Sequence to fold (266 residues):
Amino acid sequence: PHAQDNIAPEVVFHDKDTQDILRKFIKLRYNLLPYNYTLAYQNSNTCMPLMRPIFFENEQDLSLMDNAKSYLWGDAFLVTPVVDADIKSISVPLLKGVWFDYFTDDKHQGNQTVNIPTSLKTLPVLVRAGSFIPMIEDIQSTQDYDNSKLTLHYYADESVKNSVGEMYEDDGEMFQANAQGLFELLSFKGNQQSGKLSIQLSRNDNLYVGMPKNRQMTIVIHNWPHQPTKVMVGKKQNKNISWDNKTQALTVKFDWQHQDLTLDVQ
Fold:
């Protein structure tokens, strides 16, 4: 917490248990840099805030105006902070659609209130079905930032036939890189029908200093209910895959030279 006189914001001033919990979330903050940087890009272009009240979802629904307990982080995340002590569970009114618990991948239908267990080690964070979440590996500092190894999480659900996402990148130093065209914009499109999923990857033609020529891609498809019969990357069948029966997550790895590319899962 910042701006609280009675609680030190620096992790080092807390006990070991607290440090162990917070270390995980500090790593997550770094992992999410591509997602958060993209939100900043969208804010610069459209003034859409990174942290959004849930009534942004439907301004005609006056009941959402009264909910100050939850907020949207970008379009993908629904967060409900726990601000009282000794809370074992918390009620979260869900927006329409399908939502997944970020930490457990538990699936929830929207337009209802769900009761989510909580503890000091976690808090209710839900991800909207159809979301693309670009992430990087663990780093110790933004000076170590490397987006040439990119993990793209996709939250699949048959209720979402078509979905889109994007990721903004520049050199991290150039002033007004966006205005000067010194950036790249990765685009993601998902199409899921009849038990099949296609994810299209593309990139704009802009250039900037230090831009990776090749990316080691790891695509994690959440809520994939069975071992796939075939995974195609472009015109080639990909064998570098793994499917977790417990979490129902499918992981596909391949190199991407930024050509238009389609990943097909059957």
